[in-house]
């Protein structure tokens, strides 16, 4: 008689979006709350994002870009920190997707650093969001760990259809530091921190090509490393 053991369930199968919403509804709608008690990284983070966007527009556009782009979307926007401090400086209009209602209310009243304005605010998770517009810039930051691998691929495939010709899908996320090169699961907020290898595999599976990637510099060594990717649909290249 032989015994068999079932293979362990994929790590992302442990994600519970209900538990994630419970967690985030317990967090204050402040910069400190959004950044897990590290508000000091906000300025460095936003500066890094703006420099990255400038490099995209200067080095990876069909022609050098000047001025603002017409429309962007901040996916998983929280209280609108990136909407206000980054995207309003490069987009005329910024739509917002945010599943936590109290955070979405903050976005509607946010003071914007740039000349752009907040457009539509969708109070929903990314796994169920269907865009009504086409975008020059689709921004994700610290939000994709709440989607399973399958949900993430489905979302990215939708992004590939909503981004305009020559536009970019940007992903800025923590990187796993697991010594065995595996993803990590966070019990506190029910999220997965993926490896660079996993992200690249999921991008390829979603029909996207990476046109640029960098590691965010200037963060304290005590926090997880953060990598930013710029993607475009293979069909547009």
* Rg, alpha carbons: 18 Å
Spans of at least 5 consecutive residues whose pLDDT stays below 50 are none
The H/E string reads: HHHEHEHEEHEEEHEE
Helix content: 25-40%
Number of helices: 7
For the largest beta-sheet, the strand count, sense and barrel status come to:
7 strands, mixed
Number of separate strands: 9
Termini, distance in Å?
56 Å
Shape: globular
Strand sequence of the main sheet, in spatial order? 3-2-1-4-5-9-8
Mean pLDDT level: 94
Q: Determine the strand fraction and express it as a percent band.
A: 25-35%
Structure description:
By secondary structure, this protein is an alpha/beta fold. It has seven helices and nine strands. It has helices spanning 17-25, 31-34, 42-59, 81-85, 101-108, 149-162, 196-205, and strands spanning 69-75, 91-97, 117-122, 135-141, 163-174, 184-186, 191-193, 208-215, 226-233. The chain has a seven-stranded mixed sheet, with helices on both faces. A hairpin with a 4-residue loop joins strand 6 (184-186) and strand 7. The mean pLDDT is 94.
Summarize this structure as a short list of keywords or feature phrases.
237 residues, two-stranded antiparallel sheet, alpha/beta, 26% strand
Summarize the structure.
This protein has helices spanning 17-25, 31-34, 42-59, 81-85, 101-108, 149-162, 196-205, and strands at 69-75, 91-97, 117-122, 135-141, 163-174, 184-186, 191-193, 208-215, 226-233. By secondary structure, the chain is α/β, with parallel strands linked by helices. It is globular, with a radius of gyration of 18 Å.
